[in-house]
């Protein structure tokens, strides 16, 4: 665990006169630089001081909009945490990106506890995503003095379906869906998402697409099919969880992003973290990823999996490895932050 003494061991990160989001939008040509966040983190004043700073973050992905947080019991929706996070973002002038409606390994217990027939399962997927997206399609923002703001769309984009493809390139069954049914489930949920909010962009996201291989090839095939059939798809999200020193070359990343932008859709880096203790290599790696996105006009923005190691999910998800984010446990920017600024600037 990091502490104040550990933080003091970092080489001093260069202070930029402009924050990461300002640089991303003005010099990088992107729509935003953002972060995922959770409601319990809002109890930490040091955290919210950074999160509320639009010059640092122009977009928030609220984890409290995930399935287990919004419909832990079938048919009973809880939007309080999501509403609070969306209102915070709107008050700050930040975009909101909806997290995945469906992730194969993040289904709530009530879904996993019953062997649901294929047709019923499709209806459950569609009903959940429709209700969730429709709730946040149009909201009224009330600021602290109770003055009403114009009605506005709460979410700019939704990562509707995540991790639909196995490492071998096959379509992953979802929940109790039989093998081979995953494609139809994805398409049906994309239609449901579009119907719930025609103004929000609909994305499919995946990890393991940053290097050429079966996942990238399979996703390309699916996108080409969806476009040919008129299935709603506006973008592909890259869930980029790297190890320090394991980031592909800038040229490789550019080629992979352009695989999809060449089809007329956009891409975004929806979850970025780079885990490992070598902070100078980490700086280089962050710069590589950011500069690759900058080089592709259709790469619209970058979202961190969170911004501080204090609240990072990386140690839990990747076997104890950590130190993956640009701010340390004490909210001090690491050299990685300089890498981000350089990536958008150079």
From TrEMBL:
Enzyme type, top EC level: hydrolase
Main location group: secreted
Reaction(s) this enzyme catalyzes, per UniProt: Endohydrolysis of (1->4)-beta-D-xylosidic linkages in xylans
Protein name, UniProt field: Beta-xylanase
One GO-annotated biological process of the protein: xylan catabolic process
Family: Belongs to the glycosyl hydrolase 10 (cellulase F) family.
Molecular function as annotated in GO: endo-1,4-beta-xylanase activity
Every GH10 domain range: 17-343
Known EC number: 3.2.1.8
PROSITE patterns: GH10_1, GH10_2
Subcellular location(s) of the protein: Secreted
Pfam families: Glyco_hydro_10
Keyword Hydrolase among UniProt keywords: yes
Record keywords, A-Z: Carbohydrate metabolism, Glycosidase, Hydrolase, Polysaccharide degradation, Secreted, Xylan degradation
Domain of life: Eukaryota
Cellular component GO terms held in the UniProt record: extracellular region
Pathway recorded for this protein: Glycan degradation; xylan degradation
Positions annotated as active site in the UniProt record: 271 (nucleophile)
Species the sequence originates in: Mycena venus
């Amino acid at each position: 665990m990091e502490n104040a003494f550990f933080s003091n061991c970092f080489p001093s990160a260069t202070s930029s006169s402009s924050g990461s989001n300002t640089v991303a939008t003005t010099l990088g040509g992107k729509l935003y630089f953002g972060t995922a966040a959770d409601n319990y983190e809002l109890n930490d004043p040091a955290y919210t001081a950074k999160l509320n700073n639009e010059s640092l973050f122009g977009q928030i992905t609220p984890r409290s909009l995930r399935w287990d947080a919004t419909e832990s019991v079938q048919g009973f929706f809880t939007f309080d945490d999501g509403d609070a996070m969306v209102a915070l973002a709107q008050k700050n002038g930040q975009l909101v990106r909806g997290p995945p409606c469906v992730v194969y390994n993040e289904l709530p217990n009530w879904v996993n506890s019953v062997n649901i027939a294929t047709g019923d399962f499709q209806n459950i997927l569609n009903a959940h995503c429709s209700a969730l997206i429709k709730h946040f399609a149009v909201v009224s923002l009330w600021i602290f003095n109770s003055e009403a703001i114009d009605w506005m769309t709460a979410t700019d984009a939704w990562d509707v379906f995540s991790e639909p493809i196995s490492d071998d390139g096959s379509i992953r069954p979802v929940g109790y869906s039989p093998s081979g049914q995953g494609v139809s489930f994805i398409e049906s949920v994309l239609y449901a998402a579009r119907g719930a909010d025609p103004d929000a962009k609909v994305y499919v996201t995946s990890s393991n697409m940053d290097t050429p291989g079966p996942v990238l090839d399979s996703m390309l095939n699916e996108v080409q099919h969806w476009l040919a059939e008129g299935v709603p798809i506006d973008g592909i999200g890259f869930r980029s969880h790297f190890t320090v020193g394991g980031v592909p070359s800038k040229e490789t990343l550019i080629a992979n992003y352009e695989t999809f932008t060449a089809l007329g859709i956009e891409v975004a880096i929806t979850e970025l973290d780079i885990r490992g203790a070598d902070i100078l290599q980490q700086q280089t790696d962050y710069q590589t990823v950011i500069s690759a996105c900058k080089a592709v006009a259709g790469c619209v923005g970058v979202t961190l999996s969170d911004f501080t190691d204090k609240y990072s999910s990386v140690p839990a998800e990747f076997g104890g490895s950590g130190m993956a984010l640009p701010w340390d446990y004490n909210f001090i920017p690491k050299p990685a932050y300089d890498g981000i600024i350089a990536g958008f600037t150079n």
